[in-house]
Amino acid sequence: MSSKIYILAVMVVVSTLGYGQDTIPLYNSAIPNYLKNDIAEFYEPLGGDNFHISLVDTPEMYIYKPTKQLGDKTAAVLICPGGGYKYLSFYHEGVEVAEWFAERGVLAAILKSRLPDDRLMTHKENVPLMDAKQAMRILRTEANEWNIDPEKIGVMGFSAGGHLAASLSTHFGEGQRPNFSILIYPVISMEKGLTHMGSRNALLGKKPDEALVEEYSNEKHISSTTPPAFLVHASDDGAVPYRNSIVYYEQLIEKGVKQCEMHIFPKGGHGFWMAKGRKEPVSEWPELMEAWLLANGWMVK
To answer: Could you tell me where the DSSP H helices lie in the chain?
Structure first.
């Protein structure tokens, strides 16, 4: 089966999940930093509904509209799946999350961002953040059309997607600032001894310039304008050290960012997703996140 057939097969699965989903291209004209190539996007079925996406060449958002209307306008969240900047864990860290939000009256947009690859783009280290900024800009521009409150648009990311969400939260331009961020077992830093080396190598290369390491170590770019964050990690995470969440949280507090909350669970490992069916305390994190969103007015019941 060719990769093109994979694309068609999985797109049918995604498009039938409901919630009035629309597919929105990030760029209506030329895709920036694009290199002409013959490499096709690859969709890897992993059993059941689960799949990964790699070699992304068409950055898009998948919009999940709320299944019920709560209040005059809805909040929205931009979801960045993880995958070490090598693939996107699109189902467990995208579709399942979007469904959860849509069921609670929040518009969810899954970001299918490009993954850093010198064969597909120039300045690969800048491209995922470029796509995230464009996605946030679209959500703000279309806020009225999609019945979104423009002051209630957040970003959420898992693992390397957490690094992308934290990068957007610390490197935003006009119209790109999230109102809140949700970072689940996130890669925060690119510093050796703290980062996830697989994500660092994929994004920056194996021998990056120190200026790039500094630029994408998000804990070093927090200011009073950084959006409030809800962070979740497990202390037995064997891939991304839990100290990533701690250093980000500590810098938020030091810079005077209010409404922040962090949960470090004793067990959970890495990649516990929405923790469905888990019996450990880590299974409580979606409920804790919902309480945080409600308490701060980003969700309503």
So the answer is: 3-15, 96-103, 127-141, 160-170, 197-204, 210-215, 243-254, 285-295
Q: Which of 214, 217, 210 is nearest to 195 (CA)?
A: 217
Query: What percent of the chain has a predicted confidence (pLDDT) above 70?
Result: 93
Farthest CA pair distance, the chain: 54
The gap between the terminal CA atoms of the chain, to the nearest Å, is 46
- Number of residues that make up the chain: 301
Q: What is the pLDDT of residues 219-255, one digit of tens each?
A: 999 999 999 999 999 999 999 999 999 999 999 999 9
pTM here is 0.93
Domains and CATH numbers, the chain: 3-295 (3.40.50.1820)
Answer yes or no: is pLDDT of 165 > 70: yes
From residue 161, how far is each of 146, 150, 156, 260, 272 by CA, in Å? Answer: 24, 22, 8, 19, 14
Q: What are phi and psi of 39, to 5 degrees?
A: -90, 125
3-state helix, strand, coil in the chain (%, to 5): 35, 20, 50
